[in-house]
Amino acid sequence: MKALATPIRQAAASDREDLARLHIASIQGLCAGHYEAEALRAWTALLTPSVYDQALAEKLVLVAEQPGHGAVGLAILDPEAAEISALYVHPEAVGKGVGTALLEAMEQRAGAAGILTLTTRATLNARGFYAARGYLDVGPGHHRLPGGVRLPCVAMTKTLG
């Protein structure tokens, strides 16, 4: 996939299936070398289209699209927690500026909402991506999944502006 302009828009309920497919493809394609197979299965099993209902209702959900390819990235900002709770790019779109475009869009919207500092719990494979864009390690963390599965992550923060 060539580097193309990356239109970003707010996601709608009609995007739920595309969001789930994209999210799963990203995890399976990009996180596999960093997490055990059991953890990946537990993680992706949660990602049904309905899992996005609450985020669509309560958070800012953005989708990145590329002409001819459809949805190639998604990002979720929880403005109340000042946290980027998700940022995933389709494996075929990695290195094409999609993740950076989504992150910049999230940061712009957060700043416009008066948020001064953003946090995220980055997957192990995404740590370098965030660090290259000014996010600082705060320390180790984890995401807790049903069934007692814990996904290690890296707590990171960035002061905006």
From TrEMBL:
Alphabetically ordered keywords of this record: Acyltransferase, Transferase
N-acetyltransferase domain boundaries: 6-161
Transmembrane segments: none
SUPFAM superfamilies named among the record's database cross-references: Acyl-CoA N-acyltransferases (Nat) (SSF55729)
Protein name: GNAT family acetyltransferase
Taxonomy of the source species: Bacteria, Pseudomonadati, Pseudomonadota, Gammaproteobacteria, Chromatiales
GO molecular function, a single term: acyltransferase activity, transferring groups other than amino-acyl groups
